[in-house]
Amino acid sequence: MLFRRIILTAFLIGLLGGIVLTGLQSVEVWPVISSAEQYEQPETDHPDFSAAHNDDVPEHTQDHEAWSPENGWPRILSSSLSNTLVSIGFATLLLALMALLQLTGITRLNTRRGLLWGLAGFAVFFAAPGLGLPPEIPGTLAAPLGLRQMWWIFTILMTSTGIGLLVFSPYRVKVMGLVMVVLPYLVGAPHYSGALFSVTDSHVVVILHHLQQRFWLATGVTNFVFWLLLGSCCAWTVNRWILKDIDHHAAQA
Amino acid sequence: MSTLSLSQRQVLQPAKLLLPQVIAALAAGFLVVMAVGFMPLDQVHNASHDTRHAFAFPCH
After folding, report:
1. B2-38 and A73-103 are packed helices; what angle lies between their axes, rounded to 10 degrees?
2. Does A247 touch chain B if contact means CB atoms closer than 8 Å?
3. Which positions, given as ranges, span the membrane (chain A) (predicted)?
4. What is the interface pTM, i.e. ipTM, of the complex?
């Protein structure tokens, strides 16, 4: 059954992706997050920030502190699990799309093309939304969460469809793909016009600016490696396992 | 020409039958990504906090 094959393969690739992500993030991403958290102000100190946050949190959950993994092993374990889970999700998406395009005869996958798919995944899920809403270190102030999430989803849908049209559609339709890729920036990411960080001390702000630049580079490299790995692994398994005997069945039908 | 039409038949025939399964997998993958990146429950947010920041999901 194709569904089961996709999910099972995504699970295995996701496990590998989760391990690689966790290893890579521990080098620079986590240290930057924990450095930034040292300067993070309590949310209630900043009216703009808490207002933006309160829109999305039901009132009853604010009365008491919600569970949170303690620093150290519990937090590492928790992050590793969510890395693995999101990696399984991305692998499922990639495998299903690859299977869809190969089954309909639009493309024929190989490992080299898998790397290009990985590059596209990086562009869709990191670079494109990141151009409008750059990766944030803790303590960064931004527009209301709901608006940013909507723009993020809009951007990944537009960019993925746009890249698909640019690569696979006839020449005349490619223009529409280009429009879709550019559209999120014409609409514009939700804008926040206040201070960039919740702290006001100018020395700390300089440190946070530096941390933010380190964070952009670290997340960029981490996500880039992750997506290339995911793309090549998924393409390899599509031919080796997922669609292995589909053509054979069709020939008999 | 005949080879092309044969290969098209081979590929298009199962595609119709298998499409719902592929679409279901696509939806499942999207749901998992959305759950890790966007679920507003405080506990889920705290558990996936570092992953959300690392993937540049809008967080906080």
Report:
1. 160
2. yes
3. 84-103, 115-131, 151-168, 175-195, 215-238
4. 0.87
DSSP-assigned letter for residue A40? P
- Which residues of chain B are within 8 Å of residue A91 when distances are taken between CB atoms? 29
In whole angstroms, give the CA distance from residue A243 to residue A86: 24
Show the tokens assigned to A251. 């020939």
Q: Which residues of B touch A (CB under 8 A)?
A: 7-15, 18-19, 21-26, 28-33, 35-38, 40, 42-43, 45-51, 53-60
pTM for this entry: 0.87
**Distance in angstroms (rounded) separating the CA atoms of residues A77 and A83:** 10
Q: Does A91 touch chain B (CB under 8 A)?
A: yes
The SS3 assignment for A197 reads strand
Torsion region of A122: left, alpha or beta (phi above 0 gives left; psi -120 to 50 gives alpha): alpha
CA dihedral A92, A98, A101, A103 (to 10 degrees): -90
Q: Sorting pLDDT into bands at 50, 70 and 90, what band is B13?
A: low
Return left, alpha or beta for A197; rule: phi > 0 is left, psi -120 to 50 is alpha, else beta. beta
* Positions in chain A whose pLDDT score sits under 70: 41-64, 247-253
> What pLDDT is stored for residue A225 in this prediction?
98
| Cα separation, A127 vs A67, whole angstroms | 32
The three-state secondary structure class of A140 is strand
Q: Do B60 and A142 touch (CB under 8 A)?
A: yes
- Domain positions in chain A are 2-57+68-252
